[in-house]
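Subject: ATP-dependent helicase structure
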Amino acid sequence: MDQSGLKLEPEVEAVLAHIEAGKNFLLSGGAGSGKTYSLVQVIGELLRKDPSAFVACITFTNAAVREVESRITNERLTVRTIHDFLWEAISPFQRELAKVLHGLLSGDDPTLDPGAVVVSDDMFVGKTIQYKEFKRVGDGVVSHDEVILLAHGMFENYPKIRDILRDRFRYILVDEYQDTFPEVVKILLDWLPQSSRRGVCGFFGDAMQSIYEEGVGSIQSYVAAGSVSEVKKRQNRRNPRLVFELANTLRIDGIIQIASEDLNAPNMSDGKVKDGVVRFYYSTGEDNRLQQVRDDLGWDFSDVLETKELNLTHNLIAPQAGFGDLMEIYDKDGVLAFKKRIVDYIKKNGDLKDYDGQTFGQVVASLQDGKAGSALNSVKPTAGMQTFINAHPDLLDRAYQMDFQVLRRLYVDKDQLVDDKKQTEDEIARKGSKRCDFVKHVFKIQSLVHLYEQRRFNEFLRKTEFRLTNAEDKVRIRQCVEAIGAMKDSPIQDVIDYAHEQGLCVKDDKFHDFRSQKRYLFDRVTGIKYSSFQKLYEYLEGRTTFSTQHKIKGREFDRVLVVLDAGGWNNYNFKYLFEGGGTESVRERTSKLFYVCCTRAKEVLAVYFRNPTPAVLAQAKIWFGKENVVAV
């Protein structure tokens, strides 16, 4: 029995037997099989059976850390993200860290690109190697990616650190192992076993849900070599029968899920597994009939906690969610693409410093002057860039007049607009968001409006520069918030100016720096309507039904609509998924993502496919059932 008095799962019993024998183990289970439940049972039993032992549980995200901590707490249990766990292990050894970091930066083909940093033997003398949300290797400051490489180098080269970690944690358990970096797996399964101290490493997860390129994906090579013992968990506790049977057809590892034997499992009703509903919608012709699909489903799309519409990219979501004009600026600016083309050409053929003091227009003219044929084409816009420029000649004129040195340092990416999206309103935002300072400033205004409207006045007063001194100020705050609410069709610049003048949200140094250093981008975004930023805010705060397909992993909802549109992203192809064509890597990547999306559904799963081929339709009828394939 575990500490809660509940009967242990048979898979947990099998895992505990491997641990008793001193063997590393892998618990594999499909989506909805209750792997976290098993993880918590294993932790509870280890803490109960081995009173002197300390247990570490490491996982990929802060959300997963909070999930485990909400289920079990103990002073001998440490739950951390992979990065935090490794940094805690290696950060005390500063002299060794400096040597490893220097080695990663050294050589003809260094593992870490030093950039403009001069690599020397004494470059870290007197400096502390630090882990931050940004990288500045010359000062010894590393970020997420470097921590993984540093940790691997430390455990590879310094045997004593292996003993120290084993002395501290007899058991190290990895949740969602498929997302773990290959270097982390090498630390745990190649370097730690070389320690003379005893200990066990355990892995929980599902290779079919390895949808991140940087993840290890699978550790079957260790299973085949006998260094890891695998236990498979086949029951499904989440999905109705029609959903997990569809998911079974997508798996390639031999795990075939069956209904749970637990009559209290979420997918059970009246002593048997729920059937659920699956539907495959399709349309022919140029029109996108997604709205007709929504109408036919009849769902309450305002129920954001139990209804989700999954698209592959933010770009596909943006026009539907109401901020398509902002996405066009941050992701599809042909002038900035042309600027990058010019900068890349100069880097390849000369020195950027030679053009300091010139405008962008002067640089382009000097490069194009006298060139012909392919040489001229190299410094002219591509066809796609030219299409954009033809539609926005004023933007090219504005860029031509700007200082080239300022413009070439302008980097714009959609992450600066949509990074750090929450899946629910209660989710805690992570550190190190890539959002640009302009968007952050607008969101501060919108956050204040939201707090006031929710009558969360104490939080409102903590975040605003407005100071209450008398009853008249209360009236003025209300009038200010109401006035901003009425400005949804006004340019965002008007809203920013008004909030500043009223003392609600003052323009700070970061705002002024953005305006001076990123003038081209600033001029573009300030004319966008306030309503677009309101829609973006609602989306990123998790108050809409929209989500990207990658970010939904680990979640579950009553109703899920999956839109099968790759949006021009060559890494995925939903046609190949159904037809079995294309390259194996693209097909496998698409299959895993589709598997993750389908298995989010607890009640109803719907899929929408535009213009399917006859072969796609034929496969859809096999997977979903002929009666569940619907034309719109």
